[in-house]
Design goal:
ten-stranded mixed β-sheet; D-Maltodextrin-Binding Protein, domain 2; alpha/beta; 2 domains; 16% strand; 47% helix; 12 helices; 356 residues
Length: 356
Amino acid sequence: MKNMKRSKLSKAILVRILPALLLSFLILPFLICCDSKSSDDEINLYCCTAMKDVVVEGIIPAFQEMQLAQNNRDVNFVTNFAGSVELTCTIASERTADVAILASEIDAMGLLNRGIINEQTWRKSPHQGTIAQTPILILYNSEETSEITDFQDLAQASVKLIHPCPLYSGLGQWALMASYGSFLFETANDTIAMDKLKKLWHSVTLKPASALMARDLYTKGRGNAIITYESEILGSSNREVMPGQVSVPANTIICELKVVKIPQERSLVKEKLVEEFNKFLWSDRAQQIFVDYGFRSVADRLNGNNPKFFELGSTFTLDSLGGIPFVKWELIETKWQNEIRKYFKKSVSSEPDVKC
């Protein structure tokens, strides 16, 4: 009798749970399919902070609109914005990036040296991976300091200069290259150029870890002068123009922002999407967006569409200054670290807390 009752009870339980089990087997493949589709429609984009406005407000919406119109596809972006060193450290530690937009080729080489990429793949892209350019200029508060016409005028006692840290910030590296290169090309003498750079660093009172932090400090009045990108000075449609008087140095550097596709185990569908995004960055539509946001296009014919661009004098590039071996190891790691940094008004302990 007891066995009959147990048998009936087991059948009753089986009748109740069997539909649920069958339903779960039907739903599981659907959920897996949905997760796969979601992953295939998502791009992990890591960027330097100088690109935040143009990427979030311009590039991403334009690419999403294009994909929806052409392929009826909703593309999602997961973004991460940081200063150069923090950004490359995050890419190395998280291993989720699909595409990286970097402040310079120095950061691209950093990814190569960390083993995140296996070769200089960006150099095989259009314009050797450069998607936008911007010169280094000077912005200052003319009510607090006398006229500044060039980098050497930043050595005035009244100047409280904001200079992003070259150890952590892409802008900091470009600013150092711009001032040192300007002094070097003007004098053709490294000793004189270094002496002028030391005097300039007497005026540095803040050295933040990113271009975004430098912009915020300047707009809050924490300093009365800043060496920065032209694109930062011009602002965007949703951001106020940085206040102050603009000085265009007689000699300055043209910064080249690079894009690198990060190798990942991606489905063929997602790989094609990432390739389409990379290709889009050099399209006329994307290049015009860069121009609208104050960056100079690699397609010179589009730059006339922004009348706010400043007229430049003599310009040079990272390569003409000696390339990455000189800039990274000699100028930043040796000259600045050992000879220049000590002239910073604050103690070395005030440097950004960025660990990798």
